[in-house]
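To assess whether the prediction recovers the assembly geometry, we first specified each molecular entity separately, as shown.
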Amino acid sequence: MSGFDYVISIGGAAGQGIATPGNILARLFARRGVHMYAYNAYQSIIRGGHSFLTVRCSDREIRTHGDVIDLIICLNQDTMNRHLEHLGPGTSVIYNSDTIEPGEATEGVQRCAMPVGELAGKGANKLMQNTVAISVACQLIGIEFSALEDVLDFQFSSKGEELVAENVRVAKAAYEHSAANFTPAEQQAPQPSEPLAVWAGNQAFAMAAAGAGVKFYCAYPMSPSTGILHWMAANARELGIMVRQVEDEISVICMTVGAAHAGCRSMCATSGGGFALMTEGVGAAGMMEVPIVVVNVQRAGPSTGVPTKTEQGDLWQVLGASQGDFPKLILAPSSPLDAFQTIPEVFNLADKYQLPAIILSDLLISDETSTIDPKVLDMQPIIDRGELITEAGDEAGNYERYKFTESGISPRALPGIPGYEHVVSTDEHMPDGVLISDEFTHPHKRRAMLEKRQSKMDGLLADLAPPTIVGAADAEVTLVAWGSTAGVIQEAIEQLAAVGVVANHLHFKWLVPFHVDEATELLSSCKRTILIENNYSGLFHRYLRGETGFTVDGHIRKYDGEPFKPHHIVAAVKEQLEGSETLSVPYEKIIV
Amino acid sequence: MSDTNATLTLKPKDFKGKVDPDWCPGCGDFGVLSGLQRAVAELGLKPHKILTVSGIGCSSNFPGFFNSYGMHTLHGRSLPHASGAKLSNHEMTVIVTGGDGDGYGIGGNHFTHTARRNLDILYLVMDNQIYGLTTGQISPTSEVGMKTKSTPHGSVELPINPIASAITNGATWVARGYTGNIKQLVSLIKAGIEHKGFALLDVFSPCVTFNKVNTYQFFRPRVQPLEDLDHDASDWKAGIEKAMVWGDEIHTGVFFETNSRLTLEEQEPVLDEGGPLAYRELGLSSEETERIVSRMM
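The predicted structure of the complete assembly is given in tokenized form:
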């Protein structure tokens, strides 16, 4: 790889203000038009512990935090102790020499000792060490001081001009100290170009929903889904969205169903534990044929699990969500941008087929902060509500909510229209909404209504784009995956190509309904298949095999809470191609 | 929305649903159903402007027997479904119907929080102090000592006090009716619908099949309308005191009422203008889009 590709990590305890330097770096790069991807390894703790933010920046689009670290900012001794020995030649470590001992480093590691007390002055805020460190980082990679000054102004201006001036003064002193004492990094930041925007994955979900016309959003706070609630709450009044935080996830889903039935485009989000409480409500939406969109941002489970770590562990939970057999749509977007661009379509499909749609995200997608080209942020997508009756027409007085139709789709009248009064029910019912148990539990009517609902799945499948293989047609190995691993797999494929291994990529987004025929044909055409997923027992493989009867040749699985890095996949693929190994579980020596 | 029925005066029978109730003969719920039909007719409401929402249980079959828009939802979940629907279309009159098990047992958490939220909803609970549809087990309002199939030696748990709970949880109108006093019941239902805010109307509605203790014979000599007493319904302490009375005398009527709190709908600026959210134009303007993106730069 040529060009600029540089990774800065910031480590410290929760409460030491890692987020602020992270935001400053993100803005600095975005405004310069440099692509950025940040991954934060953190603990479920508000003060203390160990947090490790990795900010990778590059002159090309990146969707993984990469394999190496070029520069570490140690905000505490713990970070220094954990990471110094793993740094290689050409890297730098920045630390506050007033409070941190550097320890032994490999030859060629530049130790940038910063006398923060001397630079910041007596009685300065402890957080000033963050400003010092950021300033040194800028100086080392050749970002001119004025660019940093602009971002410091942006970051602190809401807290008063005095704080801005103080930060600029300390930053300036640190910048000059760095220029006088340290060797600049070999890689220098590119010249400024068209600025990029910065977003977090959860923000992409919220923005997409807002653009798609969501009018009701409900949630109970649960990591790592809470970012969606925060964005919605912050923008609710301006955009005319009803946003509620309520007593539990049961209430969340039921309010969402109620609001959707009354006519609002409605969404809710949670993580696996909250989704467990929601499952009965998902079935209610299926039975009453109410369109809702539910986001499950997976975290490492089971139970409370590891709240701040990622995993693709909830697949079977959503596949089996709620008792009974009913139509639903399940998908797993592969990135914030994919989610952003797909969610409007999901709302349209939920409306058209009058069913619950479940979006499987995970901590990796939802929590990542990255740059995005503002030109791709189309927030005025096509809105198609399907067969929705919003005013009285010919059917007034004779309306049947669950009318039998060829497509299985019965036109849906919103409450409030004269002559279209009807009851929707979680009990099995007849076309006019009357419960079959009110007559007598009639097997023919039960069968007909169940078939009506299920037949919607045929139309739905035909509306979804089938999977495709990306990359070389005659690859010696096809990497099969779903959801958030797409970005890291793409980079691994590039690295494999560099060492002479031709791999391509078959990625699944639409999970239910599933493109059985297309998937089977694609898989059968591959020379060799390796399935990559972030869980222990190959949950997607079990599903894929169940749907297609196809068994892949090998597996790469990771379930330690941390996401894949490209080299994990590269090493595992090589190991499997060269030997008899069929299951690789990458091991990461550095514990963040 | 056109309102073609606006000039017609409707009668209680116009609120009859597509099917007749399948409750046991003598069930107290018949009185509540006809009471509600009378009340809405007398208030001049139209079926298309009413949404009845229920959970699961004998009394939760109510929406099917009543002519209006209806949602027959999950066990215990009528209140959140109704809350979402009300916020989505706040011009509908939302009436939630159900039983004591549905509302105070499995739905107890929602009962607490819906009360404090003060949405403009009438919650009509047909309280028979027993689980009927599952053929007779104790409910959250069953009395201590009650022998049922699940408590053959008698219940040892204290019953919930729905009236006192509702008052302390923030409900702004709290009353109790008795299905054997239809005149009072109709006037309570009307007052509950007209009250702006969360209104709980707990109605003694005897289960003639499974509750052999709290029968019509039990209630008839005991019920004592608060209208006949010198009760100040604006005093929450007096309301709770009256709610705690259970014995030879049991009070009915309005225990507590206040108009001093705004409803949730009134406090939500999103609903200030533009009519029901459900009927609003979807999508963002170019200005809104630009503003959102500019904050990300």
